[in-house]
User: Which sequence fits this backbone?
């Protein structure tokens, strides 16, 4: 699954996916750190889903941030919402269960240093 908006949508998203596939959700890829992409991380992590993102996404989520355009303050994400598999230097490394990942990271130029791209065979 790619990106997960706000936590209250968790059950609706799971139901929509279950309507088209009986396969479990195993990976949640965060394309970047904004709340509309990461707001549901914690709920899916509680379901055992591996959260995948670039190191910069994890770094941004783990710290309090201030929007440079409007000054809005964003608190750090809870520990359960942080990516558990990070993609850096063309490799994936897991910080969670020792389960191997079928994903093949590739060097793709992304829009920002905090954007993520993954190739899933």
Assistant:
């Amino acid at each position: 699954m790619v990106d997960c908006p706000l936590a209250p949508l968790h059950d609706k998203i799971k139901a929509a996916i279950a309507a088209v596939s009986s396969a479990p959700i195993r990976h949640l890829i965060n394309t970047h750190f904004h709340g509309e992409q990461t707001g549901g991380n914690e709920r899916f992590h509680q379901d055992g889903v591996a959260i995948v993102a670039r190191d910069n996404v994890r770094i941004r989520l783990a710290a309090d941030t201030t929007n440079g355009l409007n000054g809005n303050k964003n608190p750090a994400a809870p520990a359960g919402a942080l990516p558990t598999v990070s993609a850096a230097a063309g490799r994936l490394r897991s910080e969670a269960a020792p389960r191997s990942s079928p994903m093949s990271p590739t060097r793709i130029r992304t829009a920002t240093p905090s954007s993520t791209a993954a190739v899933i065979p």
